[in-house]
Amino acid sequence: MTKIKSKINLVPKSKVPISYLLDYIKSGLSISDFISSYPWLKRKDVEKALDEIKRREFTSSYAL
Amino acid sequence: MKLKEENLPLPMPSKKSRIKLYADECFPVPSATFLKASGYSVIHAYDKNLVQKDDRIHLLEAKKLNRVLITLDRDFLYYNEVNLNNHLGVIVISVGTAVPENVNKVCKKLLKNISEDFAKSSLIKVTIDKVIKIKGGRTILEKDY
């Protein structure tokens, strides 16, 4: 099975795409809402993903 | 707390049409809870401690549990080489956003139209207003709703 997602596009230590987090932020939801949806994620990893979004000036081209 | 219309449970589907689902780790837990409240039997990967696992593991687990795999992971649309024969099928919810409110809205509108027979051995792509059935890498049915 060909791997499509690159690790860089995932929330650290998870298989959840960073683009999902961006969807939450764009919809006015919080990190806590995101963690409610994916309760096994650690807040610090989600915050790292958020930093990554800011760092990249995330565009839809990154979203898989 | 007042619930938004899309977060109200679905009308209970008939026993005949109710599909049993296995939700992978990309599927938001609140949407799995929403489906359960709507009468669907749903097992989430989190319930089985199957998070941070390869997509292949989720396919195998769904097969083992005799359930249709439901996911937001669009990677499944590109796994053309995956043989879904003898598999109950894969439903990819492709709504453009992963927010549970939107996922619930689409599930509420379209999931009732998908039976186990319809999904069997197939990849079903569900968009905001379409159900597309793909088998062996080929689109064999596209229905607007």
Q: In short, what is this structure?
A:
By secondary structure, chain A is mostly helical.
Structural key phrases:
heterodimer; A: 64 residues; mainly alpha; B: 145 residues; 7-stranded mixed β-sheet
Describe the structure in your own words:
The complex is a heterodimer of chains A (64) and B (145). Chain A contains three helices and no strands. Chain A has helices spanning 18-26, 31-37, 43-56. Chain B has one domain. Chain B has four helices and seven strands. Chain B has a seven-stranded mixed sheet, with helices on both faces. Chain B is globular and about 40 Å long. The model of chain B has no long low-confidence stretch (mean pLDDT 88).
Note the main sheet of chain B: 7 strands, mixed
Which spans of chain A have pLDDT < 50 for at least 5 consecutive residues?
none
Structural class of chain A: mainly alpha
Number of strands of chain B: 7
Radius of gyration of chain A: 11 Å
Largest interface: A-B, 23 and 25 residues
Strand-pairing-aware structural class of chain B: alpha/beta
The multimeric state of the shown protein is: heterodimer
Number of separate helices of chain B: 4
Instruction: State the end-to-end distance of chain B.
Output: 31 Å
Task: Set down the secondary structure blueprint.
The complex is a heterodimer of chains A (64) and B (145).
Chain A: H1 18-26, H2 31-37, H3 43-56
Chain B: E1 20-23, H1 29-37, E2 41-44, H2 55-64, E3 68-71, E4 90-93, H3 100-110, H4 116-119, E5 123-126, E6 130-135, E7 138-144
Parallel strand pairs in B: 1-2, 1-3, 3-4, 4-5
Antiparallel strand pairs in B: 5-6, 6-7
